Amino acid sequence: MTPTFLSRRALVGATLTAALLGGVAAPAAMAATPPVASSSAVTVPPLDTAALRAAVSDLNHPQATAVQLRVGGKAGSWYGTAGVADRATGAPIRQDDTFRAGSITKMFVAAAVLQLSAEGKVDLDKPIQDYLPGVLPKSYAPIKVSQLLNHTSGLPSENIPASQQKNTPEQVLEHRYDRWTPQQIVATLPADAPMKFAPGTKQEYRGMNYVLSAMLLEKVTGKPYGKVIGDRILRPLGLHHTSFPGNDPKLHGPHVHGYLAMSDGTLKDATEYDQSEAWGEGEVISTTGDLNRFITALFTPGKVLPKATLDKMFEMPAPDVRMVDGSPARYSVGLQTVTINGVTLWGKTGERYGYNSAVMATRDLQRTAVYSWTPTHRDDSQMQVSLRMADAVTKSGVGAAAR
335: Cβ–Cβ under 8 A, 6 or more apart, which residues? Predict the structure, then answer.
C-alpha cells in the first residue's frame, strides 16, 4: 500500500526519532552513542546561550512559523522564542500558549499504566489479550503489556481504508474533521497478516502500541483514558494547561497556530483538526512550562511513580533486541534516549500536522529541555530542528558570556 499522510504517522515519527536518538546524518559533535540504561554521571556543561539563540532563531531550515525553547534544571534555565503565534494577527508567542504535543502523549499513558502496575492493578508481564479479549485477531501471538510500552510488540502494519488516505496536503485538510474511534483504529490491523516479529525480539516504534495501552487504562479503571491521566497526573501536578481534546478539533484559549504548506506553496491554517485519529498516542495539548513540570515530577522518585517503578521507565530491552532496521534499540517504557555531546537525555518527541515538539531531561534533572515549533512541511526535513535543539541544549557554554 502506498504510504499516506495518515499511515505515515509512525514512519515520520520513527524517522525523526532515528535522527534525534540514533545520530542519523548528525554532525560529528552530535553523533549519538548507543542508548544506555543507567544514569550518566557526567555533569552537564554550562548553558551556551549563543547556541540556544541560534537554534531558536532559524525559521528557514526548515520553514517554520514559530519556535519556542525552554531549558531548565539544576544547572540553569533559559527561554526563547522566534516567529509569531498567529500569522493573521502577528501575535507574539507567550509562555502559556498551548500547542499540539503529539506523541508526548505516550509518556503520560505509560506513566498512568505504571501507576496501576505499582498498585497491583496491571501486570506488565500479562498479555494485553487477557485484558482486552477479542480486540486483537486470534492469530496474533500473546503480547505483554510491557512489550506495548517499549515498542517490541511485533504488530503488523495497519491497512488504512482508501477513503481515509491522505496523499497530499490538500487531502490532509479535507479530512481534518474525520472521526475515529479506538475500535476503528485497532480494526486497521489486518487479521490475516503475520506478526512482523515475535514479541520481545525486535523493536519498532508504533502508535498502535499506545492505542492499546490507552484502551487498557480504560478497561482497568472504567474511565476515559484522558480522565484517568487528568485525575492521576494533571491535577495533582498542577498541569492546568495540559489536556486531552477527545473529539474537539479546536485549541481553546491562547495558543500557537500550526500551518501546512499546500502543493503550490501557500500556507493554510491547520490548527483546527480532529485528533481522534491519534487517540491514545498523539493527541495531548500542552505548554512548554507544563511539560517541563511534568518531566521534572516524573523523574523525581515518589512524585509520580515509586522509585522501583520509575526505574522500569529507564530499562532498555535486552542487548540482543534491536530496531527492525538493525540499529540499536532506543526506546524504554514510554521514553526514548540519546547521548549527545556526552550528555544522556531521556524523553519523547511529538508531531502532528503543523506541530513538532519534544520534552527531554537528564535522569538526574541537571538539565531539562522542552521545545515546540510549527513546521509547514510534514517531511524528513523536520529532523534538522530536532538535531539542532538537542545539540544546543547539550553544548558547552564555557566562554559563552563573553560572546
Answer: 107, 110, 313, 314, 346, 347, 348
